[in-house]
Amino acid sequence: MESVLLPELQPAGRSAPGPMVPERFRVIERRQETADTWTLELEPVDREGGLRFLPGQFTMLYAFGAGEVPISISGDPRVVERLVHTVRAVGSASGAICRTAPGRMLGVRGPFGSHWPVESAAGRDAVIVAGGIGLAPLRPVVYEVLSARDRFDRALLLYGGREPEQLLYAAEFEEWRGRGLDIVTTVDIAPAGWPGRVGVVPTLIQRAAFDPAAAVAFVCGPEAMIRFSAEALIERDVAPDRVHISMERNMRCAVGHCGHCQLGPAFVCRDGPVFTFERMRSAFTLREV
Amino acid sequence: MKAMDALIAEMPAFAGLAPAQLELIAGCATNVRAAAGEHLFREDQQADVFYAIRHGSVALELHVPARDAVTIDTLHDGDLLGWSWLFPPYRWEFDGRAREDTALISFDGVCLRGKCEGDHELGHELMKRFAQVIIARLQATRLRLLDVYGVGAPA
Known about the structure:
The complex is a heterodimer of chains A (289) and B (155). Chain A is α/β, with parallel strands linked by helices. Chain A contains seven helices and 15 strands. Chain A has a seven-stranded mixed sheet, sandwiched between helices. In chain A, a hairpin with a 2-residue loop joins strand 13 and strand 14 (266-267). The longest helix of chain A is centred in the middle third of the chain and has 13 residues, at 135-147. Chain A is globular and about 50 Å long. Chain B is α+β, with helices and mostly antiparallel strands and 155 residues long. The longest helix of chain B has 26 residues, at 120-145. Chains A and B meet through strand 10 and helix 5 of A and strand 5 and helix 4 of B.
């Protein structure tokens, strides 16, 4: 598909020494987003210039001695000097990555995988639907849309989490709103005084302010949230081939060789992680995957 | 100013009803306003009304001893609020509190139950529409029970 929004970005390249060899990146900034989630900013040590990527792509992040995990890139595609990842500490490798202090090294392979087709929303309504840490792979979409805001009609972020303090990037919301992004947030559990909505993300879709006939949707979060959100979008008559989702599986090699991330006929690392919901719909109810 | 049956027809839950049915329902309806923080109803009170929210939002809350009120759900423009008027013992299960200045249509449930008894077609239509609302809220509640964002849940 020809890009109309990112003409200056070349297709993402593989790691210079080969796709299976990690390059060293130095952590230059580390900040805590929520109780178990950190954002790391990295700079390359082994290459000149930064790492070009497209929204939705991921890298394999390697904590030396602990392990390697696939993590979506959450930074601005136009700021390639710093590689930005938001990581939730859910296991030994991701925990070690989150604990990596500024000045220390991580290994990076990539970027890998398919990308969000942001350009397909030009002249249409861009509807970004995120749950929990699913906003991290979608933040590059937000940056892309806001960098060319007048190319889109409506731009909308529907975002939910378990509790208010688990919502990512809340400090950026006012700036995003000021640049033309409508944001609606909801949580599953609310303390007294929470001014936002209470309820699940799919319920936001029913009456959200967008034109279904003109909408292109980008959905990421826990799989149950993706499934019900995508179905709610289709129920509002958004075309299934314009509902894009990002899947997560047990990616190991990241180049479609090892088969760990196989999901039906697709390798999530190579054919995804971004798919149309139409393509992956049946996979959501396959018990063996 | 719009007639009440026209206002009711704008509510998603009543879309597509026949003009005569809208007129019957409008006979049981009035416009009301609730200021921010005002309770529309409280848990265990007699539930003889329900609402459709025109503009604003309402929190459904549950009083939990030794804790602040817990917000169960929030309802917004176009949402129906309340089904306790439909079924005995006709008592509210939760508190309903306006979170901001809110404009609503208030429906007299006793009046409407009487009209439904006399016009089973109207009763059937309303029951189908309330069942859809109840099912949607049940499905949303089930999704919340999955705790998809919780510790140990897939990212």
